[in-house]
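Work package 3, deliverable 3.1, input record:
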Amino acid sequence: MLDLSYLRKNQAGVKALVKRRNMNVDIDRLIEVDRERRRLISASDELRAQRNQLSDLIPKLQGEKRAESIAQVQEIKAKLSAADAELSPLESEFNDLYLKVPNLLDPAVPVGKDDSDNVEIRSWGTPPVFDFQPLDHVELGERAGLIDFEKAVQVAGAKFYFLMRDAVRLEYSLIWYALGLLEKDGYVPIKAPVLAKKEILQGTGYNPRGEETQIYSIADTDLGMIATSEISIAGYLAGEMLEEKALPLRYAGISECYRTEAGNYGRFSKGLYRVHHFDKVEMFAFTKPDESELIHQSMVAMEEKIFQGLKIPYRVVDICDGDMGGVAYRKYDLEGWMPGRGDNGSYGEITSCSNCTDYQARRLNIRYRPANGAAEYVHTLNGTAIAISRALIVILENYQRADGSIEIPDVLKAFMGKEIIEPTRKN
RNA sequence: GGAGAGGUGGCUGAGUGGCCUAAAGCAGCGGUUUGCUAAACCGCCGUCCGGCGUAAGCCGGACCGAGGGUUCGAAUCCCUCCCUCUCCGCCA
């Protein structure tokens, strides 16, 4: 959420912002509703002031004077409830629109229309050269009995999957590996609730209802299933007044993530790439405003450390305005090399790291009190440490061998208790 | 799930219909005093919305878990919901 007075003063700038982000928010209508709403609030305040004055007087009055004043107040009350009736639909329209207004952008964010305009800022590793035709993770996984999509269709429908055998061990090894690095760096491990209230979902910038929602809702409650533990962790400190010296607060969240993926049936949504649920280790930070950029860099550096350890070739991409969504002020993705994708492989998103500045903190009312001065909103940041489904894609595809077996990355061998995954299932 | 007690500013906590403009304390900020530190004393000190003002500010409104209601007037009374604590029941 943007500061309201900023919005009023920078109407044109906010309109440009909405456009740059490829969003559709009627700022003109928002300003109009705001003006109308303020007019009504002023009128109501005026009526209330009259009422309060009279009410103060009444106990000192007697007889006819008193009866007269009471009648006057009753008249004012009638006007007040009429004004409120007029106000309340405006308030809800205002809130709906206001919640849609996106965050500001870092001036350095690349300009572009969609993900094709994202800017590669560095890369690491060299895509492997195979002397055989590499397979994609779907085929590798099914042959080795690691992943079963068909049975998942039977149980839950498309975009679900069973992970089995060594894929399960890989999942836990990856979690253990990432958690080790994060905890060593000062992140506090946290297992978060996988359901969150509507106000928390909205506060984090997710729209829990509506056609384009990414969030599954639970019938007859105001709960939704989290799309990432970012939501629960942000909510963890909602309404808090933090101590300056406690900042930055950094957490390593582990949770299942649930996504409706409404309308996402693209070319690259095959297999594990785009699924309705997956496990994820997430980094989350609450920081002072002047340190969020530095922490953002450190989070991206941690993502790189994790994938360098796994020896997965990747590139770091600076997300352009048109591809950014509404919440992030700046966003970097890691794209890992996926040999099974396209003709000769291509890069696909494996992590995403956002500095949300005070956008979420304002909605969730998370502040801190500086040594000298008034309370301020903190900044929030989130970044993927390991999204299991995506990590499995790059590991299976990069570590495959001619016979369909899969080598285990060195850093996971101890956790796996083995060095190789056999090419075909044996049980 | 049942019974009872609660939810008040950054924190503790008083307040059971108008004198609440929310007491008091703590913490914080400014000052006086002062070898230093500390103490003592004095003053300031909630948030949001609207209006006025170049401005320090001034005026009005709202906010005592959330939302409704009663009343001329609600932190206070009533209803619904959420949460916390104690006890009971059930259960990995």
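The two ends of chain A are 53 Å apart (CA to CA).
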